[in-house]
Amino acid sequence: MSFQGKLHVEDGVVTIRLVGEVDSRSAHELNELIIDAADKNPTRLVLLAEDLTYLSSAGLRCLVFAHQKMGRDTEIVLVGTRPEVAETIRLTGFDRSIVMQDAVGP
Amino acid sequence: MIADRVSLRGIENLSAALSALVGRLAAAAGLDSAQAYRLRLAAEEIAVNVATHGYGDGDGEILIDAGLDDEWVWLRLTDRSPEFDPTEHDPDPRLTADPDVGPSGGFGLFLALSSVDRFEHEYVGGRNRNKLLIRRRAGGDGGD
User: Fold this and answer.
1) Would the CB atoms of A68 and B99 count as touching at under 8 Å?
2) N or C, which end of chain B is more exposed by having fewer CB within 10 Å?
3) Which of A3, A22, A57, A96 to mutate to test the interface with B (most CBs of B within 10 A)?
4) CA–CA distance, B82 with A95 (Å, rounded to integer)
5) What are A74-90's pLDDT values in tens digits?
6) In 3D, which of A62, A58, A57 has the Cα closest to residue A47?
7) Strand, helix or coil at A9?
8) How many angstroms from the chain centroid is the CA of residue B110?
């Protein structure tokens, strides 16, 4: 499955819904979304990850890039991350630099 | 035995090819989704590392074969890049780097080694052979 990301901006919060797989092939697409998001100087970056089915180190690099580009003034929140994807993030310790939340109801 | 050949000329298709191969292997071995995910992740990280560092983004090929026995499911990636043993990679400098200012990448080999139940490397006849093994569930809940 390929990757699709959709960016939404409201009240200083940038939300990106991540769908599919972020791997060595598709990571540049997420990176471009991160750059677009950073240009809006958000107070929060919310990544909706319920439908993110795969994250390789190339995808993880995008999240670290977001954290570094936006700085500590921007809170990065990952919502509804699937267990395998969450495990990848936790293994590296990057979960300590972001907020990981369970998905909320519709 | 399940075998496939991935050409790094087609690195754009590398991830898709590995996903398909792991899918076939997981079905044959009865791996659960988490096991298949770990095997795919490890294989992709090793393959990408060979492509970008071993071959230096140059021309090269990785031969992938796979198999299973009663205890293990395995993928073996063989390449002709310079000798490199991923098990000698020290992840500590990357893992302890400041996430605010450190490099954004560099987790690939760590994830590969962390994701499998056993990892073997050998350098034979000018080839690196990286074997990624996942232990099949005890009790045969995945079927034989």
Assistant:
1) yes
2) N
3) A57
4) 34
5) 999 999 999 999 999 99
6) A62
7) strand
8) 11
Higher pLDDT, A49 or B52: A49
Alpha carbon distance B75, B71 (integer Å): 14
Set out the domains of chain A in order of their start, with CATH numbers. Answer: 4-101 (3.30.750.24)
CA-based nearest distance B137→chain A, Å: 18
The chain B residue lying nearest A59, using CA atoms, is B105
Instruction: Show pLDDT as tens, one digit a residue, over chain B (144 residues).
Output: 566 666 555 566 778 888 888 999 999 999 999 999 999 999 999 998 998 889 886 678 888 889 999 999 999 999 999 999 999 887 777 777 777 767 666 789 999 999 999 999 999 999 999 999 999 975 444 444
Can you tell me whether residue A65 is helix, strand or coil? helix
Is B127 in a helix, a strand, or coil?
strand
The interface predicted TM-score (ipTM) is 0.91
- Partners of A96 on chain B (C-beta within 8 Å) are 99
Q: Is B8 on the interface with A (CB under 8 A)?
A: no
Which of A7-11, A49-53, B60-64, B116-120 comes out lowest in average pLDDT? B60-64
CB contact under 8 A, B111 and A23: no
Nearest to A57 among B12, B16, B108 (CB): B108
A74 to chain B, closest Cα gap in Å: 12
